Amino acid sequence: MKIILTGDRPTGKLHLGHYVGSLRERVRLQNSGEYDKIFIMIADAQALTDHAGTPAAVRENIFQVALDYLSVGLDPAKSTIFIQSQIPALFELTAYYMNIVTVSRLERNPTVKAEIAQKNFETSIPAGFLCYPVSQAADITAFDANIVPVGEDQAPMLEQTREIVRKMNELYGEVLVEPSIYLSSNETCRRLPGIDGKAKMSKTLGNCIYLSDDKDTVAAKVKEMYTDPLHIKVSDPGHVEGNVVFTYLDAFCEDKKTVAELKEHYQRGGLGDVKVKKFLLEVLEEILAPIRQRRAEYEAKPEEVMKILERGTQDANAKASEVLRRVKHGMHIDYFGSR
Ligand code: TRP
After folding, report:
1. CA of 136 to the centre of ligand 1 (A)
2. Residues 6+ apart with CB under 8 A from 336
3. 65 to each of 69, 72, 119, 257, 323, how far by Cα in Å?
4. pLDDT, tens only, 50-78
């Protein structure tokens, strides 16, 4: 069986970094027909580990993320889209995994470490936040997922999940499936820089182009995009490394030949930023226009979106309960028969 599980925290609308880092690949995998089952999780419980005080915002973002999913082409007939907090088995599994993970191991997780520093949590880390890699291991293993397509920043979570799986299997028999990370093959796509040239497109840094941005907003953002500060006159030779416009062309433009020609011309001198930006905008719009249109269609029928999530959640619950039963059996805590 080839089973995929992946997901996102509903902490905001999804942006181009999510698109090239993961969403585009998910749609490709979904449409390849090579996978037996695809689970896409909206990780609201994980979002609450550091947003406990704003549950209403998390709830609104669940809807926004669902719209983003549907608008990029995730198809509920092929992919099970569901809400994490509504799957009780995940919390039971998390509780058992907690016993085989040490606090020091959690404190060493590089992604969690970086987030703690970023959020100034050093002296007051919510326990749930420190432990979210354990709950993420539950998210993955509860569906017997063996393939997890995610961005590079999630590699430490996969690493830790694999450790948990091995330990559980060693203690309780072959109860869990060991997953592998699936990274985008396009290097540029694994960590898309923001429009300001900073290392990562991120909501907190305010350097995003959102999938839901309208055309004028995208045009304005492309216009202010960071290029080569030394490229002053059109005739000056320019740099393409660290030049966001070219990085985005690498990530989004399928016509590699044209990109190579543009780069060559830019480096030689005589090609202005305005022209390259105009081309980039066309490339982006070709991708974003259909996404925007599908988004508007679903936005107009919120009940249907909620129905999709409800059905997906039911489906996900059935699978996760089955895996939980198997694990509890292996742990000898199935006192009253199979239920
Ligand atoms: N940690 C992921 C993020 O920050 C979301 C997530 C939760 C996830 N559980 C997962 C991703 C399981 C992949 C698999 O976006």
Report:
1. 6
2. none
3. 6, 11, 22, 34, 27
4. 999 999 999 999 999 999 999 999 999 99
- Give the amino acid at 304: E
Count Cα neighbours of 294 within 13 Å in the Cβ-side half-sphere: 17
- Pocket perturbation via mutation, ligand 1, pick of 49, 62, 157 by most ligand atoms within 8 A of CB: 157
The pTM of this model reads 0.93
Nearest residue by C-alpha to atom 15 in ligand 1: 8
Give the per-residue pLDDT at 309.
98
In 146-228, which ranges are continuous DSSP H helix? Answer: 155-172, 187-190, 215-223
In the block, tokens 């005589």 appear at 270
Cβ-Cβ contacts under 8 Å for 42 (sequence gap 6 or more): 7, 8, 10, 62, 65, 66, 81, 82, 83, 84, 309
